[in-house]
Specification:
The protein is of the alpha/beta class and about 230 residues long. The chain is built from eight helices and five strands. Helix 6 packs across helix 8.
Length: about 230
């Protein structure tokens, strides 16, 4: 085996276990509540994120910390009545304690960078249920706020819809949680905070189950000495 390959393998093994698990990516579970489906025109109304921790003894992931913000619609944002009826959010309610998109994103990014550094990871990656939707709104808000450096990969994501379909035979969040024996209250659903934490529990369940089945760390066969 070439010497350069050996050096690369040795460097990988000296990284924290968290950094080894997803090739240097730091998964952050995110959910957004919005006033429609178009990330460019429709308002972002809530965003929540759960960062994870890894027990290096058991190899199991769990929720470390969750952050959540109610968000003011950006200037000129579209508010679809049907979307607001579905989520039950009243953007004009002063009791929401909403903040501007920039305030929410900067606080979120600060937390992610801090936890990512502690885990020895180099880039954050979004984990979400139907991840393309949430990532689209996150990217659009980041662009509107003219934030030049997001800790998140701009297009790579971990989609718990796909993972749950593979591991549990379910693609709806509530049904996937029930299949995983995770408590799920439909009356609390469609809140960014609740959905984020349930998605995080589901992601941890699937990753931990795979670990328990012997799927990670992968056994690397020894090089043939002949």
């Amino acid at each position: 085996m070439p010497e350069s390959v050996n050096k690369k393998d040795n460097n990988e093994q000296t990284k924290p276990l968290f950094a080894q698990r997803f090739r240097g990516y730091f998964p952050v579970v995110i959910d957004v509540e919005t006033a429609g489906f178009n990330a460019q025109t429709d308002a972002l109304l809530e965003i929540a994120a759960s960062v994870l921790s890894l027990d290096e003894v058991t190899g199991k992931f769990s929720i470390d910390e969750t952050i959540q913000f109610n968000v003011h619609p950006f200037e000129g944002a579209n508010l679809e009545p049907k979307a607001l009826e579905f989520t039950g959010i009243d953007p004009t309610n002063p009791l929401r304690g909403a903040v501007d998109e920039e305030v929410a994103l900067k606080a979120l990014f600060k937390l992610v960078r801090k936890k990512m550094k502690l885990a020895g990871c180099q880039r954050a990656i979004i984990v979400a249920h139907n991840a393309a939707f949430d990532l689209g709104f996150l990217n659009a808000a980041t662009s509107r706020c003219k934030i030049k450096r997001s800790p998140f990969h701009s297009f790579v994501s971990f989609d718990t819809t796909t993972l749950a379909g593979l591991a549990l035979g379910q693609t709806v969040l509530a049904k996937a949680c029930i299949a995983a024996k995770i408590d799920f209250n439909n009356n609390e659903a469609h809140s960014a905070l609740y959905d984020t934490e349930k998605t995080a529990e589901l992601f941890c369940h699937i990753v931990n189950k795979w670990h328990g089945l012997g799927g990670w760390p992968l056994a690397v066969p020894e090089a043939n000495s002949e």
